[in-house]
Amino acid sequence: MTLILRPVTEQDRPRILAISAQIWDGEDYVPEQFTEWLADRDGEVIGAELDGVLIAFARRTWLHPGHAWFEGIRTDPAFRGRGAGRTITKYLIESARRAGAEKIHLSTYIENEASIHIIESHGFRRVASFATLEKEVSTESDEDDERDDVVDISHEETVAFVDRSYFLALGQRRFPRGWRFMPFDLDPLEATARLGTRIGIRRSGDLVALMCLRQPVGAEGGTVLNFADGRPDDLRRLLRHVHRLYAGRTIAVMVPKVGEREAALLPILRAFNYKTWDDYAPAVLVYELDLS
Known about the structure:
The chain is of the alpha+beta class. The chain is 28% helix and 37% strand. It has two domains: 4-101, Gcn5-related N-acetyltransferase (GNAT) (Aminopeptidase); 131-281, Aminopeptidase (3-Layer(aba) Sandwich), CATH 3.40.630.
């Protein structure tokens, strides 16, 4: 039986949802993103079909001209071991190369050993690691409702602060945007362009702490905390302010962590009882393949 690769279409939605329902205990992000995937004319969603049944799929899009992004590589658990993930990965690498990609980027969960084996066998190298956390912020928070000196921060000042931050350095200068990670130096303004909330604390006119968040397209009640750095006391004040702003929502965070080194935000999230997948250890791995 031969695998057949073909573009995924709207007619495949029921099968895509059925496969996704078996991923991460039914909490896969693909169903929320599928409409956006199909609307992306610059990317492609490819499926692997076996005897007329769609058994696997993945998406290629762009982070930046010359920099492709792979995501959503999924295989129906009932059909694992048939080579579908490897076949799709090989196709997408060549497709990205033909489309002018100089590098390919992706992220994966640390326990996704099959995918890690496939991408590493194709030459992808690990470049960064992040802990992932989340919390549903109560609408009746018992946190102090202090009136602090939190102020809105401009896009330009945000870029300057992020550029010199330990958060960015520890993440190997990859800026987290959900499960997507943009090499900051490619285009700092673009890397931080989708941030809806940029708040900070100043002392003597200088910005000493910054926190950035965004509301993903299609997310119902979810908010992503993309960046935070500064002194611990200032970060705690900013986080309390964020909890008041986003009460009733779930806040998800990716925080850079390498071995014992961690961003200043991580112990603060721990103190605020953010839930973690892997006991606050790195869980999300970022990979790149150089095609140049």
